[in-house]
Amino acid sequence: MRFYLTTHKRHWVRLTGVPLFLKSEHFAVARTLPQALGPYAVDSGGFSELQKHGRWTRTPRQYVDDLRRIWECVGPYDWAAGQDWMCEDLIIHGGQAGPLHFVGTHLSVAEHQHRTVNNFLELRSMAPDLRIIPTLQGSTVPEYEQCRELYERAGVNLAAEPVVGLGSVCRRQSTREGAEIVTALAAHGLRLHGFGFKTLGIARVGHLMASADSMAWSSHARRRPPLPGHTHKNCANCIDYALAWRERVINQIPTPSNNLEAAA
């Protein structure tokens, strides 16, 4: 099980060999790009896109061009997420969650699933070499199964894919429902990546997934004093804190030997 440390600091890829997870936009806006020291994966930034705009503002061609530049300049990544459509209520219906305002897509779960599958097919057709992964979307176990069947009917053998993303579960990853979703999909032999899995969710179902990512370390650090010797207000942007937090999470994942990789 590979645990990616999510960060918005793109220069971290040249500072550590620990697997990192970064949004494509953090690379796309840079004039020069750092070369990666270790493994990393690329997020499409779909949550932010749909939360702010209720639609994708980047075309598949623009996204593919961004990914190709990242691949060539930063180095080959493990995989990149597609431009999928999350199915959380706030994404679909809109509303307020703390400081975040969601405009809402006002589409059905089924439509989000169709758009997710169609986008994956388009991206893979345009760039089969860029390791873009399929992602399952839904809200309930039957809905995720429905999404899985959409891929199968489109000719995508998910069980043969190196990684299959599991979306729309980050707010439920530590719940019984979240565990049921992971368990049901893992039973099909899928190598799942859990987007935004926090400590409790990883401790519960991390052993059923191929990989997961989290940026929970940053909010964790924001509520605490900085590490000894650190002069910043808190360690919410601190690589030392992030690496130590990741090590603690890995040590909590239940496996027969608990001998999970702390680095690549």
Span of the ends, CA to CA: 11 Å
* Helix content percent band: 25-40%
Please state the overall shape, judged from the principal axes of the Cα atoms. globular
Predict the CATH topology: TIM Barrel
Mean pLDDT, all residues:
93
Strand order of the largest sheet: 3-2-1-11-10-9-8
Description:
- The radius of gyration is 18 Å and the shape is globular.
- It has a single domain, classed as Queuine tRNA-ribosyltransferase-like (TIM Barrel).
- Strand 2, helix 1 and strand 3 form a beta-alpha-beta unit.
- A 7-stranded parallel sheet has the order 3-2-1-11-10-9-8. A two-stranded parallel ribbon has the order 4-7.
- The C terminus is likely disordered.
- With 264 residues, it is α/β, with parallel strands linked by helices.
- The protein is built from 10 helices and 11 strands.
List descriptors.
single chain; 264 residues; alpha/beta; TIM Barrel; two-stranded parallel ribbon; 10 helices; 11 strands
